[in-house]
Amino acid sequence: MTSRSALSLAALLGVAGVAHLARPRPFDRIVPRSLPGPARVYTYVSGACELALAAGLAHPRTRRGAALAAAGFFVAVFPANVQMAIDWRDATPARRAVAWGRLPLQVPLVWWALRAARR
């Protein structure tokens, strides 16, 4: 894995983290309602995690650990994508396509993170 690929993953996570913190409302809506407490807490925590993962991926010394943590993070947020697909089942076809398209997208993200963990 090239450092460019790991840095690209870091950039993706960094942008996502900033989006969670700057515009949390859309992310609040997809937090599974079965989780205790306010959705906004989960939105902010996931945004902070994304920023921390991005920082870890950016530095060669912390890249492996951050990449493994990123793979776990992508698995952990999968229920939010499922919640989105459920909530948008009666939405327009375009929105349903986005919601359902996010589900299989987690697989290449996990794979990308695991590849970044290799030295």
UniProtKB/TrEMBL annotation:
Domain of life: Bacteria
A GO-annotated cellular component: membrane
UniProt KW Signal keyword: yes
Plastid found in the keyword field: no
GO biological process: methylamine metabolic process
Keyword annotations of the record: Membrane, Signal, Transmembrane, Transmembrane helix
Localization in the cell: Membrane
Domain Methylamine utilisation protein MauE residues, every copy: 6-77
InterPro entries: Methylamine_util_MauE
Signal peptide start-end: 1-21
Protein's recorded name: Membrane protein
Membrane topology: Multi-pass membrane protein
Upper classification of the organism: Bacteria, Bacillati, Actinomycetota, Actinomycetes, Micromonosporales
